[in-house]
Amino acid sequence: MKKLRHLTITAMLVVTLAFTGQAALGAFAWIGDRYETDELAFAAIMDEIGDEMGFYYDTYTYERTALYNTEEELSGYVYDFKLDGMRDGFVLMVKQEYGGQTWYEVTEIYEGVSLFFQKSGVNMYPTFRTYINYDNDVYIDMGLDLVITYEIVLALEEKGFGFNGGLSWSNWSETISYSTRTIQKDMVDKESMPTLLYGSNNPSTCAVVTGNNIINYWAYYKPDLIPGVDVYSLFLGVIFSWKGDRNEIKWVPEELYVMMGTNTTGSGTTVAQFKNGITEFADTYGNYGVTYRSVMSSGQYNMSKMLTQFAANRPVALFCNPYFNIVGAIDVHSGYDLISNSDYTGSHAMVSCGRQIYEWRDSSGNIVKNITFLKISTGMSYAPSGWMRLDTGHFDINDAFSVEIT
Q: Is residue 23 pLDDT above 60, yes or no?
């Protein structure tokens, strides 16, 4: 078994910088941003906290800790910072090689003190929310406070930071008997999204599928985004179907696969690669710009922010890790509905076009069941269109943001 030699590698910097801003410290607002150096990444995050999040502070201090992989190579940094000597937070970023250049991609932003703070030995960050310390020939998963093996660390490194659809799952169903059912819909105007798949044999393409659905959605409003082809069919003035499976449009996901750099820095596509691919496509085909708006607050999805984006007809990209769920069907029967659920473990990208709240009542008017869903294009061949239910707890939205092509 290969062992890392014992190294003392935590480089600490303590600097006080003057800054005036108005922002409430949040988390995950800038996941997926990419910078040429780690210093630029951290400085940009601190500027965003001041300018965007509404928390006023005058100074901050920070300590910078290097992170390594099992090959003893630098893999990223964690910046622990303190605002005005009172409020703690930390930023994690990973080193990526893409397009012949080194980039630092922001992966996590949290309030509190990181588990790497002032730890001796070798600090390792192999995948999302996994913080490992190697000292005295022992690997410790600090989040679990558990001794783990070298093989486990390698497996975690293999997962990396791409969203690749590497999944395990369990299926279950729920029967709801009722007298009446109502559905509250808070959706984009068209109340639908393309539900396209990717016919190529390339693996780990859930982010490409999500990008393809978003590009086809915006092509309704920007016809020259996919030139020369109508991407939809209308029936009585309503979108009846999306035509993304037509041969004239199948080049779009192939182009996105290349522009996103999918599977080039590891399995799947990182958030930064996803954004870069969408931006490059919109610029290349139509000379359009792209705006991304976070719908996260303090490390959690913010429904109020989501609803604002849906009301503005902007779909929301969802990056889930390590859990998510998909409802592939809500079958209506006489006196009852049958909900087909799948709970997944893995990383996956999808896109949502709105919220739906289902409420079932008995004959006396009493509520039998109430479920809030996100309506989604799943990226799954067995149910390209479906829902993600928000009442089971089996989902973890790592990042979410709307995409607008203008």
A: no
Cα separation, 34 vs 194, in Å, equals: 28
- Among 251, 364, 351, which residue's Cα sits nearest to residue 295? 351
Provide the residue ranges of all domains of the chain, joining segments of one domain with +: 17-159, 167-405
pLDDT in tens, 282-334: 999 989 999 999 999 877 899 999 999 999 999 999 999 989 999 999 999 99
Q: Are strands 323-333 and 336-346 parallel, antiparallel or unpaired?
A: antiparallel
- pTM, two decimals, is 0.77
**Helices in 166-243 by DSSP H: which ranges?**
206-221
Show the tokens assigned to 121: 């030995």
User: Residue 299 region, left (φ>0) first, then alpha (ψ -120 to 50), else beta?
Assistant: left
- d(Cα 208, Cα 366) in Å, to the nearest integer? 44
Q: What is the pLDDT of residues 134-165, one digit of tens each?
A: 999 999 999 999 999 999 999 889 888 888 77
Q: How far is the CA of 325 from the CAs of 208, 305, 392, 395, in angstroms?
A: 19, 21, 9, 6
Residue 69 near residue 126 (C-beta atoms within 8 A): yes
